[in-house]
Design brief:
Elements: E1 3-7, H1 13-20, H2 23-26, H3 36-45, E2 59-65, E3 68-79, E4 84-91, H4 100-112, E5 120-126, H5 130-138, E6 142-153, E7 156-166
Parallel strand pairs: 4-5
Antiparallel strand pairs: 1-2, 2-3, 3-4, 5-7, 6-7
Helix pairs in contact: 1-3
Length: 174
């Protein structure tokens, strides 16, 4: 399966809104239903984001598997002074367990860790989300701690693990 990423476009908002409402997608993520119109506005605001020009606070990429949208990866909370950011990801149920998320996140990390860009990228995941833990650890992230009652979820407040990856630990960029 060929996996690629591309910047999210306003036309992706309806699909992203649909994914956000699926129980399989929301199970371990503190994401709430967001109307497509709001997602379109968010994507429009991200249009000025540039890793090359060190501009903006976040951006979303669509992961495609064999040319079909299969999920998203977001780089958010970008701090250009500290050269740090957070990465988040989600994949459609049909693409889960096939390496799609791992390859999509790796492509974003390649972009983030290019010379002059990020020095540190963080990620977090629900303590029961073993798939995301394995994905992050496979990519070289180190578990740095537990954030107690971190996320408000439909089933109540949940603990999340915090992971960190430093540029020199990332093998994808030489």
């Amino acid at each position: 399966m060929q996996v690629t990423i591309r910047r999210a476009r306003e036309g992706d908002a309806l699909l992203m809104s649909t994914w956000r409402n699926l129980p399989e997608v929301r199970r371990y993520q503190p994401i709430w239903p967001v109307p497509a119109a709001q997602l379109r506005r968010n994507i429009r605001r991200q249009s000025g984001f540039s890793l090359e020009e060190q501009r903006g606070r976040g951006v979303t990429w669509i992961i495609e598997a064999d040319g079909t949208p299969a999920g998203w990866v977001s780089l958010r909370n970008v701090d250009w002074y500290a050269k740090s950011a957070s990465v988040g990801f989600s994949v459609a149920p049909w693409a889960q367990g096939k390496g799609v998320a791992r390859r999509g996140v790796a492509m974003v990390l390649d972009l983030a860790f290019m010379p002059g860009r990020m020095q540190r990228v963080e990620a977090d995941c629900d303590i029961d989300n073993e798939r995301s833990q394995r994905l992050l650890e496979h990519l070289g992230f180190q578990r740095e701690g537990t954030m107690r009652a971190f996320a408000r979820m439909p089933q109540g407040r949940r603990d999340f693990y915090l992971y960190g990856l430093l540029k020199e630990e990332w093998p994808g960029v030489g």
